[in-house]
Amino acid sequence: MGLFGGTFDPVHRGHIQVALDASEALEIDDFRLLPAGDPPHRMGTHAPAADRVAMLELALRGYSGLSIDTREVDREGPSYMVDTLEELRQAHPDAPLVLVLGQDAANGLHRWHRWQRLPALAHLVVMTRPGERPMYGGQLGTALAHRETREIARLKDSTAGLLLHLDVSQMDVSSTEIRRRIAAGDPVVTLLPPGVLGYIEEHGLYRDVRAL
Known about the structure:
This protein is α/β, with parallel strands linked by helices. The chain is 34% helix and 14% strand. It has one domain (2-172): Rossmann fold, CATH 3.40.50.620. Helix 7 links the parallel strand 5 (123-128) and strand 6.
């Protein structure tokens, strides 16, 4: 099972490409996108959870191997990835779990709640774009030392504990830039999956530049 978390505020083509690239490279049939409820280590979201989930549903139409897991949105209180992984590990004790994240997120993993527990619950697969590099210092570097593998097949031989870096050519797009463009009235149609822009316009999302 593959897991890719984010605020998806809004979901854009770069998110979908990461999910597709990761699921294909890792040969994962059950790949889930996890919209965050209230991410404690980031600023609050700009669109309500229901709208972010609805946009994800539109974005994933036609992709049979990708699905949405709403447990973090449904959970009351702060949204912690470690809680999600513990729930999934309890439900699937013998299945390999793969947490997919970007290099920036991986470099800041030591700021996540109970981050030391993550390698015991899932494999970590870091999607690295050109120009990015791992920066695992201090306790994080110690915790990840000797976990790295270059063999994708090894992820299926154990349930958790390995670190794999995947080189990707990701779209140069961010949700922050999309929100800015929408507030300014600039075009964003090429950056969003089909149906998402229509939903944003219909529900009046991201119009207030002061909220960016």
